[in-house]
Amino acid sequence: MIPWLLLLPLPVARAAEVVGVPPSLQASYAPSASGSWKCLDGSKEIPWKFVNDDSCDCPDGSDEPGTGACPNTYFYCRNEGHIGANIPSSRVRDGLCEPECCDGSDERPGVCENICVEVGKEYRKKRAEELKIQKTGAKIRSTYVAFAEKEKKRLEGVIQTSSQEITVREKEVARLQDIADRTESLSAAELEYKKESPLYQSLIEHRDALKSLQREHKKHLEREKTLSEILDALRTGYNPNYQDMAVLDAVRGWEYLAGLPHINDVGKDASAETEDGEETDSEPEEVIPEDEWTAVQLENDLPKLLKTDYVSLLLEHDEHVMTPAEGSMLFELSNYLPDALIPQYEDFKDTLLGWMETIGVIRPSVGVSTGRCKATHAQQALNDAKNSLRKVEKEKQTAEEDLQKISDSITFGPQGEWKKLDGTCLEKDVGDYTYEVCLFGASKQKPKKGGTTFNLGKFSSWNPDAEPGTPEYYEKQMYTKGTKCWNGPERSLLLVMTCGTENVIHTVAELEKCQYQFTGTSPALCLPVSEGVKHEEL
Q1: How far apart are alpha carbons 537 and 23 in whole angstroms?
Q2: Residue 507 CA neighbour count, 13 Å, CB half
Q3: Among 41, 100, 319, 354, which residue carries the largest CB count within 10 Å?
Q4: Closest Cα to residue 232, out of 212, 195, 257?
Q5: How many degrees, rounded to 5, is the angle at CA 184 between CA 180 and CA 188?
Q6: pTM of the model
Q7: Where are the alpha helices (DSSP H) in 323-451?
Q8: At 409, is the secondary structure helix, strand, or coil?
Q9: How far apart are CA 127 and CA 134, in angstroms?
Q10: Spatial strand order in the sheet of 504-512
Q11: Which CA distances in Å does 385 have to 60, 162, 371, 380?
């Protein structure tokens, strides 16, 4: 014998695999040197022969991976030729062949046929088709991502440009604000000068007098009302048989003044005439001149008159007076001059007026109309500048909000891939209706033959049962607060999407009353194959 052969390691027999245990845990199912085995939770040590003896000995049930003895445990099917799978231990040896266990290992030998070769072949064929779709869709998705990146750069440029423009416009607003303040101050001084005119002072005096008369008139009306109540009480309560003549005369006088019938005649035939054949005397109707106001006008129109804007009235009067009479040659001299001489004439006129103002021949033209015009122009320029500033600020704010939506993972996906589809409308004809959903917008049910279009809801969120950023999160869109159903809830829509090479709706269903579900595909859900394919054990 060759001595060096003794140094070669002897082949070690492979330990038999424990039924029902996945490959990742096979190493944990081996007896110790003493022939015992410790439960996976470390709570107990049992003889190795107790493993898979159809009797639950470990508190965590780990000693019965290949039987249904322990509740809430799982059985692993190797499925050679296909993909391994876990099924609940309660379905082991129940006499039923589970689809997940194509090798039939969940039942006793001979109960279920091993069809993993055929199942695996069909699965791989189907999976190859899915991968082909996923690869094609992923290429389309990459264009969506490129669009989002381009849009982000554009928005960043808008934000930067807007920020610079805002700085310039803020300076312009500050400059125009200063001009407007100084112009308004000058205009106010001119206005105060105009208020010193006798016409304006007389108007104010008349206004104050009218206010005083109105106040006193109201006082007299209140007193008259009180007196009438007193006299009415006296009229209805006195006794002509016991009261003196002074009281009777007072009652008679009040009845005449108020146009009331004598208290003793109340209840008699109103149409009856007096004993001498003459009608009851009545107060003659007062005739009011046309240039005077009636009591109704005093009550309704006087408050309006007292609210007159006398400053505006003064300015209108000033403008009216300054306007030349029609056909006046003095103020229309320029109409008779050749066009070539008009500029020289205007310059000469301005120079002459300025010289006359300087030496005191005429008062400086402090017309409020001119000052007001300048103030108005300055204020208009300021308002235009402010509006332009607000417009730029709004553009910047909108760009910042759009950029935030693309950058976060909640609105348009981890890479902004859904931004490309914002507002994209998908339709599906079903029966007498066309169902439409505009992504991130609204969904509708439109009749083909005329009638009412119903709102199925507006976009409210992605899948509320998944974490933002995970693929599952973007597989569902919720559309809520649609048109209320008759005697039912508001219409709503659940849009369920999967990876596909087209943005399309495949099915439309009303799961419950006024609660709809669309299913469809989108390339936006097609992750690159390296991300979308999980390791599969064959």
Answers
A1: 10
A2: 9
A3: 100
A4: 257
A5: 175
A6: 0.54
A7: 342-358, 368-407
A8: coil
A9: 10
A10: 425-430, 433-438, 442-447, 454-462, 476-480, 492-499, 515-522, 504-512
A11: 76, 15, 21, 9
Q: Which residues contact 94 (CB under 8 A, 6 or more apart)?
A: 68, 107
Tokens of 239: 């006794």
Q: What is the pLDDT along the chain (538 residues), one digit of tens a residue?
A: 334 333 344 343 345 789 999 999 999 999 999 999 999 999 999 999 999 999 999 999 999 999 889 999 999 999 999 999 999 998 998 889 999 999 999 998 889 999 999 999 999 999 999 999 999 999 999 999 999 999 999 999 999 999 999 999 999 999 888 877 776 665 666 667 666 777 777 777 777 888 888 888 888 888 888 887 777 777 677 666 665 667 777 777 777 777 777 766 654 444 444 444 444 455 566 677 777 778 787 778 778 777 777 666 666 666 566 555 554 454 566 666 776 677 777 777 767 766 776 676 655 554 445 555 666 777 888 889 999 999 999 999 999 999 999 988 889 999 999 999 999 999 999 999 999 999 999 999 999 988 899 999 999 999 999 999 899 999 999 999 999 998 889 999 999 999 999 999 999 999 999 999 999 999 999 999 875 444 454 4
Q: How many CB atoms lie within 10 A of CB 464?
A: 9
Q: Which of 425, 431, 437 is nearest to 516 (CA)?
A: 437
Tokens 């088709």 belong to 129
The single-letter code of the amino acid at 264 is N
Distance, in Å, from the CA atom of 74 to the CA atom of 84, rounded to the nearest integer, reads 13
- Which tokens sit at 324? 């030349």
Residue 521: both structure tokens together? 């595909």
Please give the structure tokens belonging to residue 198. 């006798």
Residue listed under structure tokens 């290992």: 105
Check if the beta carbon of residue 490 is closer than 8 Å to that of residue 482. yes
Residue 342 structure tokens: 């008009």
Tokens of residue 235, six digits: 């009229």
